[in-house]
Model the fold of this input.
Amino acid sequence: MAAVSMAPIFAPMNTIAMTQICVGASHTMLVLIDNGHGAETAGKRSPDGRLREWRYTREIAAEVVRRLREKGYDARRLVPETTDVPLAERCRRVNRLCAAHGAANVLLVSIHVNAAGNGQWLNARGWSAWTSRGHTAGDMLADSLYAAARRHLGASSVRADYSDGDADFEAGFYILRHTRCAAALTENLFMDNRSDMERLLSAEGREAIIRLHVDGIADYVRRKGG
Done:
């Protein structure tokens, strides 16, 4: 497989960037892609320092948005800044767009990389998606992301919790609880597992992470009729 260009794409946040419709968009659903943390966030890196979550997730997010826009989706970066924009501000940005477009016409995916410890190599591994507790609009979004993750990463690389009847994990993450649209948070393998980390940094691994988000979001929008 050819190497994937992962050059970071950053743009200043302003009112126009958050409200302008994607020219030529053929889908009515507004897709918001969030990326975890910021350059100044302590920790949030592989034990050897080769993978830094803030940078990796921004590169993935930028490419996911680019490919979705090529396919005719109105997709936007929620946090193009390199700094760790506070969660309350991230939620305000989402909810302003929900008010403008209607919450049913907006979705949010927040992209992260998981870690099991605090700076040492450990054994936890695999991909997962999280929604807020209970049955929410994010459950269908997570279902679509899980189906795409199994295709692109392999079922053995996917972690699931079927205790409530679906695959996603549930937690009270701020960005999921305080946004009004369908929302899911993805934990894309473990940066403190050597095998997962090497996969994340490989061209094939990056491509799999990008594709699972693009395909999962496209499937959700199709199922919603947007």
Remarks:
- Confidence is low (pLDDT under 50) at residues 1-21.
- The two ends are 32 Å apart (CA to CA).
